Amino acid sequence: MPPVLRAVAPPVAALLALLLPLAGPALAGAAWAPPCAAAALLVALAVVATTGRPGLRVAGRGLREGTVTAETGVAAAVLAALGWSAAVLAVAAVSPAGPGAVPADPLAGPVLLPGAAAVLTVVAAAVQRTGRPADGDADEVRSGLRTVADRWSALLTPPAALAAVAVTAFAAGTGTPWPVAVPAGIAVLVGACPVPLLAALPAALRAADRAGGDTVRLPSPLPGRREPVGWTGPAGGPGLVGRVDTVALAGPDVLTGTGPGTVTVHAGRGEDPALVLRLAASVAAGARPGSDLRVAARALADAVDGPVPDVAEADEQPGLGVSGLVAELREPGPGDGGTTATVVAHAVLLGGPDWLAEHGIRVPPPLSAERERAVAEGRAVLVVAWDGCARAVLALPRAPHPAARPGVAELAAAGVAPVLLTPDDDGAARALAAASGLDPADPDAVRPGLDAAARAAAVAGLRVRGRTVAVAADPATDEAALAAADLAVELVPWPTDDGAGPGSEDGPGARPDPVVVPAPGSERICARGGPAEVAAALLIARRARAQVRAYVRAAVVLAVAGVVLAVLGTPAVVVAAVPVLGALGLAARGPRRRS
């Protein structure tokens, strides 16, 4: 069956089961009522047996394990309606009274109950869709999204079953005929059917996806995880995202983005700036994956005119620098007196003065003065040396991304204190902080000169001081800091080409691919951008939690209202409209995509 037809067939069949019993008497007289009712029952049975099969399996497995789930409530309403209708129609078919054995009023009798059961089945299946076709194990995700509904259904379904028995017994005891008394009890089960509860969490997740647009994604829960990232809990105190009071912006790119920037070369006397850039770019490319030197590696590779030579025996000391052997094929020059190209190898060092000092190399005064001047200007500075001599100073601009300063203000407006944890040295870090709206004089707001391990330790220190810390960092460089946080926000920094993200083939200005959805059940949020997107992620998670709480309360109110209507004598098919319309209403609501 084509996918479109597979999606359309169940609701069409459910409506057909609801309308068939009315169509027979209306079009051809009462004689057609029993055949149309029987046809409606068969169609409803087919809908329940196909669309409702997964839910019935879950309900049966739960009962065998002694637990009541949301599917238990749906199955109780559906199977009671179908079973009673099948029994009444079978008795009517063999009764000497013929069709008269079926109550004449369709609303009060069993003929519309199969259609109501089919509609409940279709709605129960539809409202659990997460809207995330990329989720690997759809069944496991749906099971996780049922956790809230299961907890509340365990409280609501048993009392509803007892109320159904009590209503049926009371009606029969007061002389009401069984064909009317039993549907009155079934109406209680139908009114308490927990399809709005099944809609609550998937609706909140879809709303959060729409609010996040292409830049923010929350994880979906899995069974056994009561509150992944603190946003799915329907009751109790504030969730984790509500308790976060500090956001650590960790890593080299979190305020600047991934643009390479322009490298300024301060070469020593007689040194070729082009050779300086080529050798520095080569050894920088040998840094470890996730190294803080990747900023310099991008900038240097962009500055080199032509291919970057390969590096051999690369060795990086995190926080200090990187070394390696770089070989080049040198063509003979006019004054070389030869005609054969030669291979020239250099032992190259790239890092700070301490890194060169470990290898016995001193930075000469002219280069040291250039270095101090660049540091005073707020630039990130590296020294290049090869063959035992310091050759040049490289200055990289550390200007914030245009969206960084407004993003820092949004974090403050969200009620959290931003803290910058950066590998930049003190001057560059404080200049970057000041340009981004942080207080460069506040030792709690700016932590310079930290390698990846030191950034993770700084996060642990903030938590020891009693803060609830969210870390926003690129997992490629700061996985340790993310693991040390109360709440991890995996942040892919702003893309290089003014909006063209990874996977985009349309060049500058193209719309980036949507951010990767976090693994179901993970305790992380994924985002792309900078501080503004981190603030948006926190707000979206808080609103999602608040929305789940509001939806759950609405679902409980709908269940109570349905039971009250049923006890007051409202026909079951009318009562069925309460959970159906409630579930569809909850599933359709949610904030629009964030601009």
TrEMBL record:
Pfam families with a match to the protein in the record: Hydrolase
SUPFAM superfamilies: HAD-like, Metal cation-transporting ATPase, ATP-binding domain N
Region feature (Disordered): 216-235, 494-513
Source organism superkingdom: Bacteria
Stored InterPro entries: ATPase_P-typ_cyto_dom_N, HAD-like_sf, HAD_sf
Membrane-spanning intervals of the chain: 38-56, 68-95, 107-127, 152-172, 178-201, 550-568
Protein name as annotated: HAD family hydrolase
Annotated organism of origin: Pseudonocardia alni subsp. carboxydivorans
